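Researcher: Quick test of sequence recovery. Tokens follow.
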């Protein structure tokens, strides 16, 4: 069900805005040396390979791949994250700004 929710454009729009301000090249450096990468701010602690050895790299890609304006790898990785038990709750931006909110204002006036 969570991965089905990921298909909703409103969810991706809200998350991208609050995670990175729609910046595909965004990198946030954490105190522990890890980074949050790309438009959805995907963490190097678990999901991508940075320069830190022995990280899980669950998406099987380099963190720099998440900085590409072509969002294919980023969306595939994000979909993988949503299939985990925490689902969209993995993202603090989702929990604080999008979850349980009326997201229709994001596409008001758009023709889908």
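Model:
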């Amino acid at each position: 069900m969570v991965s089905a929710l990921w298909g909703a454009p409103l969810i991706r729009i809200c998350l991208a805005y609050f995670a990175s301000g729609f910046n595909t090249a965004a990198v946030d450096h954490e105190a522990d040396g890890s980074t949050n990468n790309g438009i959805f701010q995907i963490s190097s602690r678990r999901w991508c390979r940075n320069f830190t050895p022995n990280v899980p790299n669950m998406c099987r890609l380099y963190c720099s791949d998440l900085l590409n304006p072509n969002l294919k790898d980023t969306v595939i990785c994000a979909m993988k994250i949503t299939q985990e038990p925490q689902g969209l709750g993995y993202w603090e931006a989702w929990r604080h700004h999008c979850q349980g909110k009326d997201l229709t204002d994001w596409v008001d006036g758009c023709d889908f």
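Strands lie at 27-29, 35-37, 42-43.
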